[in-house]
Design brief:
alpha/beta, 7-stranded parallel β-sheet, about 280 residues, 8 helices
Length: about 280
């Protein structure tokens, strides 16, 4: 590796990628984090919860004594590992495979959460996909629609299905991105969905405030997750995160505390806001 390299070259052919195939593996359990039962008695649904940011958030929530519902597309091996970790921490875990852009699947999630717990306290809308293209002309209508369906339609469908289970004190945290603020020349459709998520967060926060439900978001910068080697070629991966002031990618464990803050009563006077966890890039948003 050269002085500008941050990671070994690697690539996976299918999104959203497998964490077990990555080297080094993402770090998702911080040895420095000190849990304080901030989510004791809470039930949380986390999309994209099998690996990456979702896995780190799920495990950290379990350390804070929340029960967790993991939603994922089809990465069963990663999801089962995450479930085992959560259960080893003494918390309940339900994992469900499916597409959050499918209203029928979202309805089934709501049914199972209602049947098992009778309520929902926290919703983490985190699932997403991205497909780089050099030019706008290279983005097919099919790709544009697919990216929007997963990243923002899915967020709408799941939130709509689960809202009846949430009462006063509930919290919704959406994963947007630094690309919503800086843009990205090769991720036009992805960046557009993240801009939509930011606006969705702000508008939904105002809509739900009188119901006592808080809505906020986290905007990650370059984070080492399975989406990265399954999105970019091996050469691009070697420089991932090098352009940040910290000159490295972030680890999922470095994002999880932001989600805990927004999901807990520590942020009781915070709605419609975005926390930027990006290695020092100032976006003024």
């Amino acid at each position: 590796m050269s002085e500008t390299d941050t990671l070994p070259p690697q690539h996976q052919d299918q999104q959203p990628g497998q964490e077990e195939q990555m080297h080094p593996h993402p770090e998702f359990i911080s040895g420095h984090y000190r849990a304080a039962e901030k989510l004791a008695g809470k039930v949380a649904v986390i999309t994209g919860g099998d690996s990456g940011i979702g896995r780190a958030v799920a495990v950290t929530f379990a350390r804070e004594r929340a029960d967790v519902v993991l939603l994922y597309l089809d990465e069963t091996e990663d999801a089962l590992k995450t479930r085992q970790i959560i259960e080893s921490l003494g918390q309940q875990c339900l994992e469900m495979a499916g597409d959050v852009a499918d209203a029928g699947f979202c309805g089934e999630v709501a049914r199972q959460v209602q049947e098992r717990w009778g309520k929902l306290d926290i919703l983490i809308n985190n699932a997403g996909e991205q497909h780089p293209q050099d030019c706008l002309e290279d983005i097919s209508e099919e790709q544009w629609e697919r990216t929007f369906r997963t990243n923002i339609f899915g967020m709408f469908q799941l939130t709509k299905a689960l809202l009846p289970l949430m009462g006063e004190g509930g919290a919704i945290v959406n994963t947007t991105s630094i690309t919503a603020y800086k843009g990205n020349p090769k991720l036009i459709d992805y960046s557009s969905t993240k801009g939509a998520i930011t606006s969705f967060t702000r508008s939904l926060a105002m809509n739900l405030v009188k119901r006592g439900i808080r809505v906020n978001a986290v905007a990650p910068g370059p984070i080492w997750t399975p989406l990265i080697p399954s999105t970019f070629n091996a050469e691009e991966v070697t420089h991932f995160g090098a352009s940040t002031p910290m000159e490295r990618p972030g680890q999922p464990e470095e994002l999880a505390p932001a989600y805990v803050y927004l999901a807990s009563s520590d942020s009781s006077y915070v709605i419609g806001q975005v926390l930027h966890v990006n290695g020092g890039t100032v976006v003024n948003g």
